[in-house]
Write a structure and sequence with these properties.
single chain, mainly alpha, Heme Oxygenase, Chain A, 8 helices
Length: about 160
C-alpha cells in the first residue's frame, strides 16, 4: 500500500509545473492570478474548514489576503463544482485536508518567504506544531488516496481556469 505522498506525487508535480503553479513558485506571479487562486482556496476552505480542527483553519486568513490584493472576483466555477463534491463526503474532505494542509504547512513556509510583497497571512500559523499534529493524522491514512488525488486534480483545473 502506497503512502499518500507516493500516491499523489505525479499530480503534486503537475501542479508545480503548471504555468500558474510555476509562477507562484517564482514568488512573482501576476497579482490577478494570485488573487484568483486565493478566491478559489477560500471557496474550498469554506467547506473543508468546518470539518477540521481550528488549528488548521485557513478561510479567515485567505479572506484577509484576498482583500489586501484589491481584487473583487467572482467565484471560480471549478472550485464551485469541487465544493459540491466535497459537501457531505467526509472522505473527500479528508483527502482535501491532507492536500491543502500539507501545502500550506510545508510548501507554504517556502512560499511565504518567496512571495515578498504579497499578502501571505494564510501561510502563517499561530501554532505550527499543533497544525503538524493534525496534518500527520492524514499522512498516515491509506483510505483517502483517491480523494487526495481528486483534490490535486481540482487544483490543476483551477489553475487552468486562472490561466
Amino acid at each position: 500500500m502506497k503512502h499518500l505522498w507516493e500516491a499523489t506525487r505525479d499530480l503534486h508535480h503537475a501542479c508545480e509545473q503548471h504555468p500558474v503553479g510555476a509562477a507562484m513558485a517564482t514568488g512573482k506571479p501576476p497579482l490577478e492570478w494570485y488573487a484568483k487562486w486565493l478566491k478559489a482556496l477560500i471557496q474550498i476552505h469554506t467547506v473543508v474548514d468546518e470539518n477540521l480542527p481550528e488549528e488548521v483553519h485557513r478561510c479567515t486568513r485567505l479572506e484577509t489576503d484576498l482583500l489586501a490584493t484589491g481584487f473583487d472576483l467572482p467565484e471560480s466555477h471549478v472550485a464551485t463544482f469541487y465544493c459540491n463534491l466535497l459537501k457531505g463526503n467526509q472522505l473527500r474532505i479528508d483527502g482535501a485536508a491532507y492536500v491543502l494542509t500539507g501545502a500550506h504547512l510545508m510548501g507554504g513556509e517556502i512560499m511565504r518567504r518567496r512571495l515578498e510583497g504579497y499578502p501571505t497571512s494564510h501561510l502563517e500559523w499561530d501554532d505550527r506544531k499543533k497544525a503538524l499534529v493534525v496534518l500527520n493524522t492524514y499522512r498516515v491514512r491509506h483510505d483517502i488516496s483517491q480523494e487526495a488525488r481528486d483534490c490535486f486534480a481540482a487544483l490543476l483545473a483551477i489553475m487552468d481556469e486562472i490561466k
